[in-house]
């Protein structure tokens, strides 16, 4: 991408993000992510623990991943954005209550967290657009969606395993299941996602 095209692209999605920010402020009383119930649901011990584990693994592995576009600052930024927004974005887009105004804000958050933040980070630091922006857009979008699903794994006695956003009451707080109920699907998903992240860098390159 030439510098002119990169500048136009950056201006375009920064405009989208500013419009999304203004809309989010105006709709804050209606947005799921702005409600205390969402944060009570998200900040459960097992979710915080798995977030810390995943972020630590990426943080300490970053210098050894043979990828000049992956550093520790980027890991911390994208991991935090993913943890805080992915469960909401995935739940808003694929859940029961698809309110159009919130869906487009969730889509903007998805794109910013998985792609545009990465692009801006390197554009600001290097002065040119990363050649890997297309690859990152695809790969990080998949990982963002997987993270949203991981932290949405739930178990309800009457229904068994499900993604929490498939419950019409989501994210209203109820008594969360003990982690022993969730351990198997959570660990399996973490293994699969971890393999997708690390194997290409450590084995295939």
Order of helices and strands: HHHHHHEEH
Radius of gyration: 18 Å
Intertermini distance: 24 Å
Major β-sheet, in short?
A: 2 strands, antiparallel
Strand content: under 5%
Strand order in space, largest sheet:
1-2
SSE-based structural type? mainly alpha
Report the principal-axis shape: globular
Count the domains: 1
Share of helical residues: 55-70%
Nearest-integer average pLDDT? 87
Number of strands: 2
Residue stretches low in confidence (pLDDT < 50, at least 5 long) are none
**How many helices in DSSP terms?**
7
General description of the model:
With 205 residues, the chain is mainly α. The chain has one domain. The protein has helices spanning 3-26, 36-42, 45-61, 72-94, 100-126, 133-150, 179-204, and strands at 153-156, 160-163. The chain has a two-stranded antiparallel ribbon. α5 packs across α6 (133-150). The longest helix has 27 residues, at 100-126. It is globular, with a radius of gyration of 18 Å. The protein starts with a helix and ends with a helix.
